[in-house]
Amino acid sequence: MAAFKGRSVSFVWDGAAVLGVREKGVALNGEPIDVTSDEDAGWRTLLTESAQNEMNISLSGVSKDRRLKDAWFSGNRTKTASLTYPDGTIISASFYLANYNETGAYNDAVTFDCELQSTGTVTYTPGS
Prior knowledge:
This protein is 6% helix and 61% strand. The chain is mostly beta strands and 128 residues long.
């Protein structure tokens, strides 16, 4: 089995820990509000606040847990989730399970990857 890349995290999905998860990447996006007018001499003007903030998290792992797969097939793909990093940083929010891929078997577990997309406010607690 090839080594998994990514940061080891503690992942909780719908109140239950899913073991064997690694975070592959986090994408933070903020869509600006364009308020350009004729008085701006052709230069774009953006408000300092975002119109829409979003967070996408890519996860992978080897797990015997079926919660993510079950959420996908049940159609109930939006759940409260949290990730706790080794330094104590915590990210929590309601997330939509945008995709789920099983990429192979390992003993009695499956290798998988998935992407979570935030829906609503994300809480960020910095670690040490």
